[in-house]
Amino acid sequence: MTLVETDLFDPELLLACRLEMPAADDPRWRRYGNDNELKLEGPPAMWGPSTVDYFDRLATMAPMLSEHFGIDGLTMETIGGGFHLIPPGGYLGIHTDFSRSPATGRYRRLNVLTYLNVEWGDDDGGELELWNDTECVQSIKPEFGTTVAFVTSSTSWHGHRNPTRRWRASLAGYFFTETAPSDFREQSTVWHPIGGCHA
């Protein structure tokens, strides 16, 4: 199940968040570069007041998300989230995420992504792909103001295989519950065997 909204947040707030995102050469970025992913991740120490405001507002949306997805007791965390910045040529292979919070032990249930890419235009890379076990079933352009929420599980394959031609910026928050879902499987990040990145 997926929720895609284009007006969930005030555009002025999102523009302010984008301006608070540090330059790519800032040493505080966590950097990932391998066959599966080429990206930068920005934890809370890098956030300005507008970004803090965004995540505060996102946290208050837990009841709405609970109702939409039928998951009670959602609580937001940003471990592994926060700022995400993908350089030109960057990618993220199709994968499923770690299943429990390393900080609280809670069970991961939802990913929420908001894109900050003004005038994304005709860039043919960087689309978020949602997969079943064998193929892409939904593709979403990372256009400014688009917020995507989807259930996370051992079968919720997602990523963006197609390298971008420009910088791709987003905010990521994750929602957890104290109790495990009925189909829970303990795991760290798992990369899809046929969902690798395009050359």
Low-confidence stretches: none
The appropriate CATH architecture is: Sandwich
Query: Helical stretch count?
Result: 3
Overall shape: it is: globular
Structurally, how many domains make up the residues?
1
Helix/strand order, N-terminal first? EHEEHHEEEEEEEEE
Please report the first level of CATH classification, the CATH class.
Mainly Beta
Please tell me how large the radius of gyration is.
16 Å
Strand content: 35-45%
Please tell me the overall pLDDT: 94
> What is the CATH topology descriptor?
Jelly Rolls
Number of strands: 12
Helicity, in percent? 10-25%
- Summing up helix and strand content along with how strands pair, one would put the structural category as alpha+beta
What is the CATH homologous superfamily assignment? q2cbj1_9rhob like domain
Measure the end-to-end span: 30 Å
Q: Largest beta sheet, briefly?
A: 12 strands, antiparallel
